[in-house]
Amino acid sequence: MKPIIMVVPEKAWCINHGFTRDDDPNSPDYEKALRDDDVLNVITKMGAIMQERGYPLKNLSSALDELKNEEAMDMALVSKNDGEIMENDLDKLTRVAQADILVNIAFTRTNYGPRDMIEFRVTSIDAATNKQIGGETGHSSASGAPITSLLNESVLGFIDQFSSSILRYFDDVITNGREGSVVFKIAQDCPLNFESEITLNGETGELNEAIDYWMNEKTINGAFTQNGKTRTRLSYEQVRFPLFGKGKFGGKQKAINMEGFIKPITTFLSQFGLSVATTPVGIGKVYVVLGKK
């Protein structure tokens, strides 16, 4: 099994080359970048190189089209719930594309008369955590060949090593779970807060301890870190959740993101008279708001 990848132009490269949103010069505009022939050709060629090595590919252009048609765009997550829930363009793309790994690519062209020498930088990023997995650089010879040929020439020296680093990382994810984070919040109509006493399995404790119990039962090897608790906010990081879960109405296995992992807590919390509303940010983070059932 290999991870689904999506090739994207590197954020810093987009900003440095002017491929940014008109309303925010520090946010890359991937649609604008793909209008440049060199960028489109490089992204397409790099995707083909990874596909040749057996990686399922999510096309960036297709993901952008899906994003345009997604009703969730109207939710305006950049300014929701007192501004705490933030979802940038790359978060939106990864949520729509459901890619496991982002392959970021950047290139620098040096002219030698009619010939070009191009240096390429390629990095692999975990789409759920934005952590870098691996990175390589390579350069072509000075040539008048198309940029796709120069890319192919430059990456051949390191592509197998680059691919191996991705596979080693993904093997760890399969064994130990994907890493994510979750934030629980209390709505105004919620009858409890995280310090309220509840009874579970004949024992009395606080609501946050009951959620800890659920997390310990459902995460892989009980791996998670509670990194903040108040009466109205409870947050977890380094939550290791499985790549696959059971779907409803038949229970067949399906790939899940953090939202898919946390959804079943709805049944667990209903015994305390609580409702659950979730808002995903990318594929590795979710906000859970507890209210009255």
Which features would summarize this protein structure in a list?
15 strands, five-stranded mixed sheet, alpha+beta, 10 helices, about 290 residues, four-stranded mixed sheet
Task: Tell me the number of helical segments per DSSP (H or I, 4 or more residues long).
Answer: 10
Q: Radius of gyration, rounded? A: 22 Å
Structural class: alpha+beta
Distance between the termini: 41 Å
The count of strands amounts to 15
Description:
- The protein is α+β, with helices and mostly antiparallel strands and 293 residues long.
- Helix content is 33%, strand content 33%.
- The protein has ten helices and 15 strands.
- It has helices spanning 11-16, 30-34, 37-52, 60-69, 89-97, 147-155, 159-176, 207-218, 258-262, 265-270, and strands at 5-9, 20-21, 24-28, 101-112, 115-126, 132-139, 178-186, 197-200, 203-206, 225-229, 233-241, 244-246, 253-255, 274-281, 285-292.
- The strands form five sheets. The chain has a five-stranded mixed sheet with strand order 10-11-7-15-14. Strands 1-4-5-6 form a four-stranded mixed sheet. Strands 2-3 form a two-stranded antiparallel ribbon.
- Strand 4 (101-112) and strand 5 (115-126) form a beta hairpin.
